[in-house]
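Q: A reviewer asked whether we had any structural model of the full assembly, not just the individual parts. We don't, so I'm hoping you can provide one. Inputs are below.
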Amino acid sequence: MSTPALDATLAPAAAGTPDAPAVRTARTRTAAGLRAWAVRLGSLAIVVALWQWLTTVDARVGLRFDRLPSPAEVAAEFGRQLGTRIYYLDLAQSMIRILTGFALAAVAGIALGVLVARSRWIGDVLLPSVEVVRPIPAIALVPIAILVFPTDEQGIVFITFAAAFFPIMVSTRHAVRALPTLWEDAVRTMGGGRAHVLWNVVLPGTLPGVFGGLSVGMGVAWICVISAEMISGEFGVGYRTWHAYTVVDYPAVLVGMASIGVLGWVTSASVELLGRRLTRWLPRGEGTAR
Amino acid sequence: MSAPAMETARADAGLAIRLEGVSLGYGRHAVLDGLHLDIAPGEVLVIVGPSGSGKSTVLRAIAGLLAPRAGRVLAQGVPVTGPSPGRAMVFQDDALLPWRTVRRNVELPLRIRGVPRRERRAAAESWIARVGLAGCEDRLPRELSGGMRQRVQLARSLAGAPRAVLMDEPFGALDAQTRGEMQRLLLDVLRDTLATVVFVTHDVDEALLLADRVVVLGHRGGHSGGHGGIATILRVPEPRTPDVDRAELRAHIIEEL
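A: Here is a predicted structure for the entire assembly that you could use as a starting point for your response.
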């Protein structure tokens, strides 16, 4: 029986046509995919097992694992919370905040990134203010948000927006500037005007860079939505986690942290997956794509 | 006015493209000064010259991608103020939009012009077949070899039924064998169209194979001869097949270069 690794190296020569890049067969792809998942889950299991062991033996190795709840305690608390309505309300509230803020940031960031890169005049008008605000951590905007927005809810969405906006805008701007002029020339010689160039060249051509910004933006947005919830929320995973801390309920704190981790991972993976689907044309080999 | 253009029988039908005292440059860098050139409809004019002689720059000016600093470019007697689908361009490489399949690349000029979907699809498919790529319609550019990509560019440029096709060293990046195939394909395809062709190359043999006339651009500042950088203009006798001996013309061009 041949090993999956051997299959993977032999398959391209057999499957590829002379002109097309080699394509791995479905069977070896499935095998390689299963192996990759086994490795990923295995690594996660090892971390949890190590944590369980350290807390069970009350290890004090510089760090006080004797004070930390064990994975079993956290799992028990998690099971309890799954049976409550409030847990899902918190999840939904955080998701609504992040998706609203992120969607607004994506639209505004891409639009502004394209505008300032394509028009020197708009760049001159807008970039100075943007560059001054950009270094301010979004979370430092909380006092302002509380001041100017009528409700806490809007303030939190604004913080999320501010966090995600800059990475998206900056990545878009760089991607537009780095676009080869050849594609634009080609479309113009077909009689294409500004709108055609924008739609057929700029937007699709910058997608790889834009998605880099969206991925970073989603990560920063989570950091900021959770922090903002901790400061001024009434619902949400961040609020609930902070609340658990104030009543010294450490298993609940860890449930909150794990929930944030999972939500963050799901949203980042969604952005990543969408990005890969939309940029299939990029010249990357199937085997080298992560 | 350049004498060789007057000799062209087809010149009677009016000029396809005319350059009147055109000066070109980028920034502070002047490339060509006071260039005069007349191109007859249906003619295949090849511009040869060393690197930096401004041959691609002339093409960009004819395409309307670069505005002359002085003089003017006329297409069908009308001053060129910008790019137009009537003057399609084939670039050296990688000018296909990599996110569009072969079919959608070839369709693009028709789509921009607003041709209905069914009609443009049929036109695209017929051009794809004409350049020998039937069956590759749904492939992405990255899945094609360099020669195949240039075939797609050729199909894309012709799909819009332009009056003129401007080709900027389109086979320059190809290996010798593929280049030969592409030259034959081009000659073959051009026979079906009435398009005027302006073709830029640094390869003298390619020029002699494809051209009705060859324009030789000299080094900048050299051999102006009243035509603004043009060292010489030569007529290439028919038939245009690779085996015809053109040693004399070749020697002449190389001497000018």
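A: Points you may want to mention in the reply: Chain B touches chain A at residues 63-65, 82-85, 87-89, 91, 94-100, 108-109, 112-113, 139-145, 148, 160, 166 (CB under 8 Å). The first strand of chain B starts at residue 17 and ends at 26.
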